[in-house]
């Protein structure tokens, strides 16, 4: 996957961790590209590539290329603030 200036969030509608991650991003007014795997199943292949073949959401790709998989709120905040998670 190419690096971009946008955060990419692979998600589903039923995932509690996904809802929490989106709430954090929204509360910080951070723009992100949401890819709902239920609506865009073709994107699953991309998500699996960055997860080493493991199906887990949320998978969040930061503009730096760093990948967060099912991050806690603290891990997500630390990554967004540029601190080690």
TrEMBL record:
CDD domains: NrdH. PROSITE patterns: GLUTAREDOXIN_2. Residues 7-61 form the Glutaredoxin domain. InterPro entries: Glutaredoxin, Thioredoxin-like_sf. This is Glutaredoxin.
